[in-house]
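hey m, so remember when u said the tokens were messed up on ur end? i reran from scratch. heres the input so u can diff it against urs
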Amino acid sequence: MSANVNSRLTGFYKLPLETRLDLIQQQIPLSDEEVRVLGEGMSLSLEQADHMTENTVGLYALPLGIATNFKINGRDVLVPMVIEEPSVIAGASLAAKLARAGGGFEAETDDPVMIGQIQLVGLSDAAAARDQVLAHKDKLMQLANDVDPVLVRLGGGARDIRARVLETPKGPMLIVHLHFDVRDAMGANAVNTACERLAPVLATITDGQAYLRILTNLADQRLARARAVIPEEALAFGDFSGEQVAEGIELAWAFAAADPYRATTHNKGIMNGIDAVALATGNDWRAIEAGAHAYAAREGRYTTLSTWHRDGQGNLVGTLELPMALGIIGGATRVHPTARVALKLLNVSSARELSEVVVSVGLAQNLAAIRALVTEGIQRGHMSLHARQVAMAAGAQGQDIDRIAHAMIDKDTIRIDCAESLLSK
């Protein structure tokens, strides 16, 4: 990340769009073409899109915004987020400002080890087959490494072979896990190819049949963690004292920790931030979602991914841990023009750095959501921003969008019929 970035852009949201782009370009050395990619939005051509997916007939655009105020591991970061939901980017920026009062976010990640699974069935003795697999571990790891010598040369490759007997309604199966370091890639293609290579060899070793050969999105060997310490006084606003806000956040976390109904929405708030950065950088946000929710239920009961508590000095301490399989090479991260610009904005040099940013954004978004819930309520800020969408849906254009939105907010009635009535006048 660049050392001269200042993410503390006061009043950034009040500036005209063109001025925001100018301010970003002053800090990040974007070319005029890269600014055009951001400014015009539809940077992906139909021809490019036709090569990315099947049956292409058009393009679909979403807003890309910048979350400000982030300081992660001592460095300022401007965070690109792609999301259509109002208040998410504003909330993340506010929470990052609160965390900044305590020094910002501290984040770390495990090595980028993904897990591939090979399913073996038709075994006469599954336990004996497991022993045979482990006896051939070195040979199997070498075969996996032969799939991508370049990745191995860069420090990646096979790290371990594990095997477990799984009792199922269709009888016992042997599930072999390949632990594979994918370096700066998300890793699906590398792991799946290695699993395909190992499958016939494993079938021979075990005298069984190999069926599924694919990675798991429960990447629990590739975890990312973030932590923030927020001084109690930084949480105070309006009629709410810092102590009231901190205690409310603790109570909100306890609710989520004990109740899967609340934990689901609690974690959705976390994923609002994580998905938005993953989408901006061309990563597989669906894989991140699947892994996160599976990790939340890893002990047999769905619960919260984050924790919030006060320390002995009254500071509010938040932590977040979840699987984070992100890449900065391969796939849409290098094909989609806007994803390339987003990575340049972040100025990360590895998948691990990207994961540290993303997990910090997830913790910030979680803080923003529960802070709103325990104080003025989630709807006040959310609906104020949502009012502009309602105004546009009613047909408002240009300056009328904000005029109609403000009028609905003043009336405390943010509905399409109200917007249509105001617009007709």
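this time it looks ok to me. The mean pLDDT is 94. if urs says something different then somethings off w ur setup not the seq
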